[in-house]
Amino acid sequence: MKFKTLMIAFSTLIFLCLSNQALAQIGKPYIHDPSTVIFCDGKYYVFGTGGGGLISDDGWVWHSGAVRPGGGVAPDVIHIGDRYYVTYAKGGGGLAGGHASNIYVMWTKTLDPKSPEFGFKDEHIVASSNGVEDCDAIDPAFLLDPTTGKLWLTYGTFYGYIRIVELDPKTGERIQGNKPIDIAIDCEATDMIYRDGWYYLLGDHGTCCDGANSTYNIVVGRSKNVTGPFRDNMGVNMLKGGGKFLVGASGHFFGPGHFGLLKLGDGVEKFSCHYESDLKQGGRSVLGIRPLLWKDGWPVAGDNFRGGTFEIQSERSGYALELAVDFVRMSGMQPFWGRSLDEPVKPIPPQTLAEDSKVWSTGNINVRLGDYMVRPHQEWTITPVENAGGYPGSPYFKITIAGTNRALAATADSDLVTVPEFTGSPEQLWRIDQLTDGTYRIMPKVIPNSKARLVLTAIGVSTITLAKFDSKSDKSRWNFKKP
Questions:
Q1: Phi-psi region of 130 (alpha: psi -120 to 50; beta: other; left: phi over 0)
Q2: Is residue 402 within 8 Å of residue 382, measured between CB atoms?
Q3: Tens-digit pLDDT profile for residues 219-246
Q4: Three-class SS of residue 182?
Q5: Using an 8 Å Cβ cutoff, are 84 and 57 in contact?
Q6: N or C, which end of the chain is more exposed by having fewer CB within 10 Å?
Q7: Quick one: how far is CA 432 from the chain centroid?
Q8: Who contacts 461 (Cβ-Cβ below 8 Å, separation ≥6)?
Q9: For position 346, what pLDDT does the model report?
């Protein structure tokens, strides 16, 4: 009995360690002032201060290898047509560098340094600061306006104004005669995004470059016009220091900065940033990728799913995912009218796994949706799986009935089943993405003999299958409720 207790405690400790790691990318995600994460020729790329950057096959495991000539600081990248434009700054930043700086733009047809089409061309200056004016021309970021097709560049630091200029999306050069417009103060490393008629300006507030003592946090304002005025949720203009808080330090991560939007489709949006310091990575600056949610017209920082034991609840009906097994009644129950009011009250323990599982098959068991009754066949333990890869921001998970190794799996018929033992096969690995409304999408890594991208879907009140995600329906949206 003592040995069994120790094994359970050890397993719980391992699970908690893995869960705590689920916010941090793995491999060697070391970077400062990262660009927006971008997908090119089957891989993810991100560039950082000092030249170069990181590459990932899946958005979870990162390693060095991205190539960006020019050195300098705080690059950004955008894909337009058959070109990838990269911008970065040289000079500025204060201290020994002063505030005189130039911002450059160059392009390449691929970001893969091994491709024959790789090679940056037509580098040119698109913005400058002379070291005296109230602006420091570093920290550039692109926005391609989806409503007009115009290309914009924001830049600047705490040492003066944040500014915006217009570029030519066909060449990356600055539009002749276009003058910079002041749009904010008291922030830096800005990025602009567009959503539902609003332009959102996100920037870093606080101090950087001091490890775990950095106070970087990200704030946001919005405007109906790309050139402002940008106001926060209280109506304060960002030219007067306004900015609604988006994300700050948490756990062992300090100083989030350099927001970049990563749209993954099907209602899944994430954002990249760096953390000035990750205590579990020796205090290094690391890449972070987190869900981006939206509430009342404002962006909200979500948290990557970490696992645990849950009821998996359908947003469509409120019903719970469960094994398709016979219902086992709890023993010792009497109707209220058969009891005396003077009878001593004795607590009744919840149904045990042993009581519930006595009617289960030893082979595969189907799944369905049913009224949640806090029964063991409705409780699922979700655990990150080591060395199984992942997707942007998270590892793959296994989904098992709590207290057992019975695992949820996709079938070759694009359906669902639970198998007696988790083996780590791809159809038993699950991707869990938080959607912009806060609910979740659950997707198998692989469907046997298929390349279809299907998700867990409630096609009826009690019937569940794998089907294409419908962003306009609640059928494929799920919640995780603690039992």
A1: alpha
A2: no
A3: 999 999 999 999 999 999 999 999 999 9
A4: strand
A5: no
A6: N
A7: 10
A8: 316, 317, 319, 369
A9: 80
Is the separation of the CB atoms in 101 and 136 below 8 Å? yes
Burial of 365 (0-12, 13-18, 19+ CB in 10 A): middle
Q: Could you tell me where the DSSP H helices lie in 320-400?
A: 353-357
pLDDT greater than 70 at residue 59 = yes
**Residue 228, SS3 per DSSP:** coil
Cβ within 8 Å of residue 342, ≥6 positions away: none
Tens digit of each residue's pLDDT (9 = 90 or more) over 318-360? 999 999 999 999 876 666 666 667 778 788 889 999 999 999 9
Residue type, 145: D
Q: Residue written as tokens 């068991």?
A: 365
Two structure tokens written together for 305: 């799913």
Domains of the chain: 26-301 (2.115.10.20), 308-481 (2.80.10.50)
* Cα–Cα distance measured from residue 59 to residue 27, given in angstroms and rounded to the nearest whole number: 11
Helices in 331-474 by DSSP H: which ranges? 353-357
* pLDDT score, position 141: 98
E strands, 248-315, are: 253-265, 268-278, 284-295, 298-301, 308-314
What CA–CA distance (Å, rounded) separates 365 from 324?
7
